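lol ok so funny story. i was supposed to be doing the assay writeup but got distracted and ended up predicting the structure for this chain instead. priorities right. anyway since i did it might as well share w the group, maybe its usefull for someone
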Amino acid sequence: AQRALATEPFIEPEDEAVQALLQRITRGRARSVPPVLFAKAVAGELVAGFALRDDEALFNELGGLEGLHIHGAAWAARRMEGTVFDLAALTCALYRAAGLPARMVVGYDVLRTQGRRSGVVGLSYPCGQEGAGATGAPVLWAWVEFFLLTDPKEGAGQWIPVDVARQRLESSTPPPIDQPWTFFGQSPCSIGMIPLALHPLAARGADRPAVASIWGWRPAAGAPPVLQQLTLDAFTAPVVGR
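and the output, tada:
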């Protein structure tokens, strides 16, 4: 859990802008509030006040997916805008800044990439079944999970998902904090989401790459020696018999 409290590239809980935003949201009472209520209060502030941009991917000159468009928590805290990856990084940093273990999850959004071809039906916006966008590239997404301690003696608990971006797409007005939220502690979109990584960079002592990717597609800074591209796909298999 200590790593889920640390500073990492793009997730900077000790940054002064992140700390100032946390102070404004909680009025200095972050650690005196139960973890779930604190996490929900932070999510609600971001749902209401963060301007979400839709240019979440970067593409190379051939139209291939090159990496994630992310500036990070410190950048997002100063501007209160950014992509889904900036929003997830900021949410994660705010949780960590208050001592709540949290991690950012990057996933492959099968529903938004494949639409009804994915075989998953019955879900509507903001889960999305519109298929691939104009680029035809895989759609990647990000959300946050915080660790809720359920057995202090054993140190056991569970990771609770929070998809602030989709909660904002559903409505920029957060629901009452004492009521269930569609994308807090659950997500109907998860049936069409494949988690890929817990950070946009490799978890090793590498320099920050020129473009943020998934677990370091490009682990060294600067231009890659060869053109690299990651192809993502998903399919359902029919079940025959019992």
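The two ends are 41 Å apart (CA to CA). Strands lie at 51-52, 57-59, 65-68, 81-82, 102-109, 140-151, 156-162, 193-197.
back to the writeup now i swear
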